[in-house]
Automatic annotation (TrEMBL):
Coiled coil: none annotated. Keywords: Cytoplasm, Flowering, Nucleus, Repeat, WD repeat. It comes from Lactuca sativa. Residues 1-12 have a biased composition (Polar residues). It comes from the Eukaryota. One of its GO terms (cellular component) is nucleus. Gene3D superfamilies: YVTN repeat-like/Quinoprotein amine dehydrogenase. The lineage of its organism: Eukaryota, Viridiplantae, Streptophyta, Embryophyta, Tracheophyta. GO terms for biological process: flower development; regulation of protein-containing complex assembly; response to UV-B. It is found in: Cytoplasm, Cytosol; Nucleus. This is Anaphase-promoting complex subunit 4 WD40 domain-containing protein.
């Protein structure tokens, strides 16, 4: 391990909203800025990352002490977030995947999605892959304990577990369907299916325990369904100009979507009304990640400009931008930030994990301080 410093950052502590009327007037007169810094970097070698190890997903567990990565290398790597952050330094600490990884599970196909199973004590992880298979792994034995292949061999882009009934899962794939399954029912066969007619890029259940699931599609729309009666959607969000690649719940009543039109949008579920648009990052053809730190309403996403962007839900412009350029390593011309996930722990301090197309993982620490 060695220490390296990073300079490619931009901070906008109090950016103007896209429209003065859009700003959340319920916030107090005192606004806050966030100071972010790179705390740790994990790469394929001390010389930089490896383009053959492009990361497709980063997932932090509910306790905020572990995170997992997956991608084209056909490996689930699990890391101790606490261990990587334990080195107290003003500079980021550089690790190698081989030594930083807590353990690794080899998978038969490239991975597009990972989810920690709720209620399993972070001992079970679900995955979705390019071969159209959804698999659950017991992380103690590092063995698959459940597998389903009902998307006709088409690539599964996303899977998630319900927090309303944690045994139930859902997946969305290139076959144009969102499917829900229950291992207690008929060997885990499909218990509900929505045929959307175009590739389903994202599926996310309401993480607050409600009976809603949000679906993003290549038809430029996002849909919200009530899982108790999946017939017609309870909301349809039509505002993106290109594929909706991610859907994320901000709270019980609000969803944020990401599109390959290069913008994020926040929606009111009940009113089916767009609240705000977020612009600044570049996204035209790739999955670049989307995650929300729900405690404080911070939104993170990647960019095809090989930068990581952080937005405050109140403003349409980014409050922080960080370049993902390798330190002392080879620069890839087509490099981009491909995955991102917040730890949901903390109130005035936060942790954000991002992954790049060169396989590099960066861990960011943020602190809030009042402006005078």
């Amino acid at each position: 391990m060695k220490n390296v410093s990073f300079q490619s950052e931009q901070t906008h502590p109090n950016p103007p909203p896209l429209d003065p009327d859009q700003e959340d007037r319920s916030t107090s007169a005192t606004k806050f800025e966030w100071d972010f810094s790179v705390s740790a970097v994990v790469s394929s070698s001390v010389a930089g990352g490896n383009i053959s190890d492009t990361l497709g997903v980063v997932e932090v567990n509910s306790s905020g002490n572990l995170f997992a990565t997956g991608g084209i290398a056909r490996k689930i790597r699990v890391y101790s977030l606490n261990s990587l952050l334990s080195s107290s330094s003003l500079e980021a600490t550089l690790f190698d995947h081989a030594t930083a990884c807590h353990y690794c599970i080899c998978t038969p196909a490239k991975l597009s999605s990972l989810k920690w199973k709720p209620g399993s004590g972070s001992q079970v992880m679900g995955s979705a892959d390019y071969d159209g298979v959804v698999t659950e792994y017991d992380l103690e034995t590092k063995m698959p304990v459940y597998e389903r292949d009902e998307h006709s061999g088409r690539r599964v882009w996303s899977m998630d577990y319900s927090h309303w009934d944690p045994v139930v899962g859902a997946s969305g794939a290139d076959d144009g369907t969102m499917q829900m399954w229950d291992p207690r029912h008929d060997g885990g066969k499909c218990v509900a299916k929505v045929v959307l007619g175009s590739p389903v890029c994202c599926v996310e259940f309401n993480p607050f325990g409600g009976a809603l699931v949000a679906v993003g599609c290549a038809d430029r729309k996002a849909y919200v369904y009530d899982v108790r009666k999946i017939v017609d959607p309870v909301a349809v969000f039509d505002g993106h100009q290109r594929t909706v690649s991610y859907t994320r719940f901000l709270d019980d009543h609000t969803v944020v979507t990401s599109g390959t039109d290069g913008c994020l949008k926040m929606w009111d579920i009940e009113k089916q009304h767009m609240i705000r648009t977020y612009k600044g990052h570049t996204n035209q053809r790739r999955f670049v990640g989307l995650s929300i730190w729900r405690n404080q309403g911070l939104i993170g996403c990647g960019s095809e400009s090989n930068q990581l962007f952080v937005y405050d839900k109140r403003w349409g412009e980014p409050i922080w931008v960080h370049g993902f350029e390798p330190e002392g390593g080879r620069r890839y011309e087509d490099g981009f930030v491909s995955s991102i996930c917040w730890s949901q722990e903390g109130e005035d301090e936060c942790t954000l994990v991002g992954g790049g197309s060169d396989g590099v993982v960066k861990i960011f620490s943020g602190k809030r301080k009042p402006l005078t």
